[in-house]
Amino acid sequence: MSRTKVVPLPVMGRHNINAYLLLGHRPVIVDAGTPGSGRRIYEQVAAHGVDPGDVSLIVITHGHIDHFGSAAELHRLTGAPVAGHIADLGPYRTGRAREPYRPTGPMGRLMARNKNLHVQVEPFEPDVLVTGETGLEDFGIAARIMPTPGHTAGSISVLTDQGDLVAGDLIAGSLFGLVRGRPANPPFHDDPLHNLASLRNMLALNPTRLHVGHGTPLEPDRVRRWADREHRRLTRLEAAGRLPARTENSTA
């Protein structure tokens, strides 16, 4: 099968919120952006010389509205089936992200008050229900879906055979990518320790680059150093009883 190319599709700003186009034997879209961005993603796919009607699958990395907000619209525009993890089925079916949001720092605490995060968007029913590692060869790309829970219970990433990891909100660029190449937490994690474990599991697979939902691509060695520091920070917080208790949904 041909090499899979990862192409960013900016949804907001130059790289504040990203969807991705994976190009192989057939094209696959990863994430659907905020509500009302389906047409923008559709047009960007076409601008890359791809017939949007040829898209074989839309993969949604998790149940936050800046990633699944236009899933139903993009499904209608392209006719492609949508894949999502069973543990985030509640948000997909209701059109509402699971709340409360659990901030990872000051930005998250500020953003949690933003009414746009609490709106109801058009729901959808995944055509491909992910329950574990899932190969994507049948959809025309040399890649596999990898469950990476922690940010949300049903968070997933896509790892290509060449080592590109399309990571959703497993990790982010600092200040939504304004600081290029610098790893950081996204504004929210349901379970920071579980998310960090998922991140380290993916790093153990030696990805060549991490393509994130917020920011520019990240180099694995820099993410590893960040993850070591984050492990020490979270261990201190946990020992001090300052981490939020894990919920059933965050560890599903």
Automatic annotation (TrEMBL):
Metallo-beta-lactamase domain: residues covered: 16-214
UniProt cross-references to SMART domains, sorted A to Z: Lactamase_B (SM00849)
Recorded superkingdom: Bacteria
Pfam families in alphabetical order: Lactamase_B
TM region positions: none
Protein name: Metallo-beta-lactamase domain-containing protein
Organism name: Streptomyces vietnamensis
